[in-house]
Write a structure and sequence with these properties.
Layout lengths: L4 H7 L16 H6 L4 H14 L4 H12 L2 E4 L7 H12 L4 H6 L9 E5 L3 H7 L7 E4 L10 H13 L4 E5 L2 H5 L3 H15 L3 E5 L8 H13 L4 E3 L11 H18 L4 E3 L7 H15 L11 E3 L2 H14 L12
Parallel strand pairs: 1-2, 1-8, 2-3, 3-4, 4-5, 5-6, 6-7
Length: 330
């Protein structure tokens, strides 16, 4: 009988009660000392897809683990309440019940559902009793260029509507201008506006220019109190990549080593197939350890990814690939 990562692996993990990241004073000496060896990072990232391939039962186990870490997302201009309710139903039951029964894995759900502020109340109602959190994108998503007071008010309204996670976008200009104090101040105010809701800081890494900027922005956002750092809005021309991910999770590792605080990581945008998922999970386990493979510390931002994972799991059970249209998201 298959014992996937969502059960057997978790049973051997220490039962930790994580302290939310309170942030710290801005340490400019630390920020300025951060560098990124781009060629070395790219070489390391290039080795992962070929070296970290798993098959058969092991592949199924990793894919089941990935489902529990998905922020199932709809962020379209034509979103409707009915679409969000269908997405929430999918989050409750992400895989065909017969497939889960064959894998002896009943009852798994996605990590969260992510929507615009306008759809928060709809999603909260649709997920009532499921334990699945609602994440709201906020602060003038995706550009983050609306007036600052309106961005703060949007956070407060999303929390009041029931969102327990807020995905904020930083002002990219602060990074590009090296204005780390402004980025830190912005992060602190947004963190305060979230109250008890966890805050994920979206760096929009495809627009930051260099991996050194990515590393420094990651560190400043964590100093400012980010509970998660996230690659992208999914709307940029370049979204999550392995070199960017390696840069960001090493910043997380350094921050944890210095402060003892666990900060989560969320790659988003462009991750749409099961093979890539396993590569990202392997990278997280190698660089940060098994504790970061839980949904309180790792998420995929995705809309179409779940469909491909379903197809791979069905193939594992039946030996046949189903048509993609048999696995609608919403």
């Amino acid at each position: 009988m298959l014992q996937p990562a969502t059960t057997s692996q978790d049973a051997h993990l220490p039962q930790l009660t994580l302290t939310r990241n309170p942030g710290m004073d801005l340490d400019m000496n630390w920020v300025r000392s951060v560098q990124a060896n781009t060629s070395a990072i790219e070489r390391r990232a290039a080795t992962l897809p070929a070296r970290r391939s798993v098959k058969k039962d092991y592949q199924a186990a990793w894919l089941l683990k990935a489902i529990t870490c998905i922020d199932l997302t709809t962020l379209s201009g034509d979103d409707t309440a009915a679409r969000v309710r269908r997405l929430c139903a999918k989050a409750r039951h992400p895989v065909n019940a017969q497939v889960l029964a064959a894998l002896d894995m009943p009852g798994i759900t996605t990590g969260a559902v992510c929507v615009y502020h306008e759809m928060v109340e709809t999603a909260v109602a649709a997920l009532d009793g499921s334990g699945i959190p609602v994440a709201a994108v906020s602060t003038g998503f995706p550009a983050g260029l609306s007036p600052f007071d309106l961005r703060i008010e949007e956070i407060r309204r999303s929390v009041a509507a029931g969102a327990s996670e807020i995905d904020i976008v930083i002002s990219r200009r602060h990074v590009l201008e090296g204005n780390w104090q402004a980025l830190y101040n912005e992060m602190r105010e947004m963190r305060a506006a979230c109250g008890d809701a966890h805050i994920k800081a979206i760096l929009a890494t495809g627009e930051l220019g260099t991996l050194r900027n990515v590393a420094r922005a990651s560190l400043v956002c964590m100093m400012g109190g980010a509970d998660f750092i996230k690659t992208s809005t999914g709307k940029e021309s370049v979204n999550a990549t392995l070199p960017v991910s390696l840069t960001m999770i090493r910043a997380i590792r350094d921050y944890q080593a210095a402060t003892g605080i666990h900060v989560g990581y969320k790659p988003a945008g462009g991750i749409s197939n099961a093979k890539d998922v396993i590569t990202y999970l392997a990278l997280i386990k190698e660089e940060l350890g098994a504790r970061w493979l839980q949904p309180d510390l790792f998420r995929f931002g995705a809309s179409s990814l779940l469909g491909d994972i379903e197809r791979q799991l069905e193939h594992h059970i039946t030996g046949n690939y189903s048509a993609a249209h048999r696995h609608p998201m919403g």
